[in-house]
Amino acid sequence: MFRERKPSVRWVLPDGRYDPVVAEGARWLDYERAAEAPPDSGSAPANRAASVREHSTADPAERTGRADPWEWPAHEEETHGGKPEQWVGEAEAPEPVERDWFDGPRRPPRLADSRPYGVPGGLARPDPQVERDLAESIAPGTRFPDPRGTWVRLINGGGPADDPFRASNAADCALAVLSTWHGEPATAAPRLPEYDRIGRPVLTGERGGTARIERWAGHRLQYAGQGRHAYPLIARRLLDAGHGAGAVIVVRWPGGGSHAWNAVNADGEVIWIDAQRGHMSVEPPYTTVTGVFCLMLDRQGHPR
């Protein structure tokens, strides 16, 4: 069965057919036969090349007695993300768009429709030019606009320096921030001009302003803590509520009186806003306060 070995050869191949496949699909035996064939005609090189090509293009199972691993045929591959056609139905569904508070049936009324216009202790109608200025500062339909933009400074028009009755409308400023934050720009209305007996402007806040905040938002203000120590808890809750969350904060001054302002979660960062003064900051602006109360809602209007 085995050929006789020469002294210099350590092993020999068995007799019979032995055609191992090498590079380009050709066999060593192909080259050996081509080399041994006599050059009997001018077409011999072409015949030898054709012989090699014939063996190279043979079916893999016929050449080696085994089939190569199965692959997707080229004509079955579609352009649906590079996957075969039968995988198209398994494509990932688009991420659902989260609804906004103002898109649902429990959205608050338009801010202008909830104001006590023209009544003692109430509000006066805002200047139409102030409303246009705010609307032009934000692209139509924008929700959760960057609080570092100009819109915060435009909520209260020219502010107390322009109109003394814009120094006592903090409750409406806080609601105007929430309305604008959710894509419905609204400027704050000034207090209805009122004067005392000697003609001095009455600069007390809106009568029943805290109750109107709760009615408009549909939830009650909750006690958040005493003094500046309440702010870290508010910030943590805003971050937990996610981008688009907003809060109305009401603080009491040590000497009496109160003030309303806001905080929002803008892309994972808490921004503190006092629109009555056209001010925003990354740190709470008021530290010398007593009681702190908060009404916090996520972007869908759920209390947090």
TrEMBL record:
**InterPro entries recorded for this chain?**
Tox-PL_dom
| Residues of the Tox-PL domain | 169-279
Composition-biased stretches, type Basic and acidic residues, lie in: 51-83, 96-113
Q: Where are the transmembrane segments?
A: none
Reading the lineage from the top rank, the first entry is Bacteria
Note down the stretches annotated as region Disordered: 33-129
Name assigned to this protein: Tox-PL domain-containing protein
Q: What is the lineage of its organism?
A: Bacteria, Bacillati, Actinomycetota, Actinomycetes, Streptosporangiales
